[in-house]
Amino acid sequence: MNIAKKIYCRLFQFGFKVAIPLLPYRSPHILNKVDEIPQLLKKKDINNVMLVTDEQIRKFGITKRLELILKEQGFKLTVYDKVQSNPTVRIVEEARQQYIQNNCQALIGFGGGSSMDCAKAVGALIARPKSTLEDLGGILRVWARTPYNIAIPTTAGTGSETTVAAVILDDETGHKYALMDFPLIPDVAVLDPETTRTLPPKITAGTGMDTLAHAVEAYIGGSTTRQTRREALRCVRLVFKYLERAVKNGNDMQARRGMLRASYLGGCAFTVSYVGYAHAVSHSLSGRYNLPHGETTAVILPYVLEAYGTAIYPQLKALAIAAGIAHMDTDETIAAQSFIRAVWELNRRIGIGSRIPAIKPEDIDKMAQMADAEGNPVYPVPVLMDAKQLKRFYVDVYEQGGTRA
Ligand SMILES: [Fe+2]
Questions:
Q1: Within 10 Å of residue 383's Cβ, how many Cβ atoms?
Q2: Whole-model pTM over 0.70
Q3: What architecture is domain 3-21+200-397?
Q4: Is the bond into 153 cis (omega within 30 degrees of 0)?
Q5: What separation in Å is there between the alpha carbon of 42 and the centre of ligand 1?
Q6: In this predicted model, what pLDDT tens digit does every residue of 336-350 receive, in sequence order?
Q7: How far is the CA of 145 from the centre of ligand 1 (A)?
Q8: Among 3.40.50.2300, 3.90.190.20, 3.40.50.1970, 2.30.40.10, what is the CATH number of 32-196?
């Protein structure tokens, strides 16, 4: 990256870092059980709600308990269950129309990141009826009170239950972009491990590593606060303790609960301190080839950590201590390299590979430009890279181009 762009990026990031204490970050109210929702809605004088979810989750009966108790207690319930992985502009618009037609007063995003993001995006359009999603994409463009929003994650997770972001896919261009504004932070997050019990091992693995990436990228970035560093370290400790257990035995409720907590903490960390190039590269890949975000991020993460080199060794040592693989007196280089190795090994043990065979070499230039546009100047990454430098990650994970077995 040339020096002028580097200066621009760092000044931009410095501006946002200085502004952190002035910005209206808030944490959602936490409920531990879905059953507590009706009482809360009554307190808020809300009796007409819209559930935003996907067909699979509904088919597995995961939303059934909530639907029953809401109906039993006299709530009017509208269900929109057409969310797909990577919610599209068309889907958000469809859900918005149902919300208006049924005079709903609140949104419940019940599912993975896609359902929660879809509910947030519907809220943004309700708050700003004259704007399109594209108008609202980017930082601080919603700027209006959104409807009461309850987020119920069924994966652990995207952290969407606590973040300012809603990621949307433009179905026509394949471009993924995020709406990022404070009104999008859900009012309530329901961390009920029962909602994750039936999550298949593959999705548990991918979304769990996404959680790890949130904490790691936030921690190694240049915009941390004492609180986000603490949240990131707690998240990393929980992921290394519980993710493998949750993947291998979905009924291990202690592990499921630990991962939901990790997801929430990772979300709290990155919504203030941002993610980094693992996410920027991953978004371009999952948008282009419709791949699950968690899995692509998991594959990319250790390559990115290796590429940052010694610049992040002090932070990686702290992460290694949190993960339980190093001590205070461990040599910094050894601890840092052990952490990267531990990420590779955790990926391998839970069935995540080190390649993305879907990549087509002719797409790499375009995707690297998209990652550059997403990451720079917003993400306060430890080492700045432009599109040309980011290309290495696509080549690394491309089936024939990779260097790691
Ligand atoms: Fe993520």
A1: 15
A2: yes
A3: Up-down Bundle (1.20)
A4: no
A5: 33
A6: 999 999 999 999 999
A7: 25
A8: 3.40.50.1970
